[in-house]
Design a protein that fits this description.
Structural class: mainly beta
CATH topology: Rieske Iron-sulfur Protein
CATH class: Mainly Beta
Radius of gyration: 15 Å
CATH architecture: 3-layer Sandwich
Bound molecules: FE2/S2 (inorganic) cluster
Largest sheet: 4 strands, antiparallel
Number of strands: 11
Number of domains: 1
Strand order of the largest sheet: 2-3-4-9
Number of helices: 0
Strand content: 35-45%
Length: 112
């Protein structure tokens, strides 16, 4: 029985910044092949979200990080930086979150 010919593709990772460029409590915008991404350092753990608010597409990197929540400065929506889940109106849909790997002082995100 055939299982199809679709080959499994290897995940694509990209180095996006050095850890030293994203201090604890900070946000940093980076450009990637898949668009703008905002990195967040929550107590030493790095998270990555699409840098576009799901309310009106403004950059979340202009916002503020409070614990593990990112507040959009434009209309006050809040997102869980770990998952991208919308926590507060006016945003109701999540933003994309990316897998993050930290190796040898560099931050990598999984692009697809
Ligand atoms: S654009 Fe972010 S809350 Fe409106």
């Amino acid at each position: 029985m055939s299982r199809g010919s679709a080959a499994r593709t290897k995940p694509r990772w990209a180095r996006v910044a050095a850890v030293s460029e994203v201090p604890a409590g900070a946000l940093r915008a980076v450009s990637t092949d898949v668009g703008a991404v905002v990195l967040a350092n929550v107590d030493g753990d790095i998270y990555a979200l699409e840098d576009r608010c799901s309310h009106q597409d403004y950059p979340l990197s202009a916002g503020e990080l409070e614990g593990d929540e990112l507040e959009c400065p434009f209309h006050g929506a809040r997102f869980d930086v770990c998952s991208g889940r919308a926590l507060q109106l006016p945003a109701i849909t999540p933003v994309r979150s990316y897998q993050v790997d930290v190796r040898d002082g560099d931050i990598y995100i999984q692009l697809d």
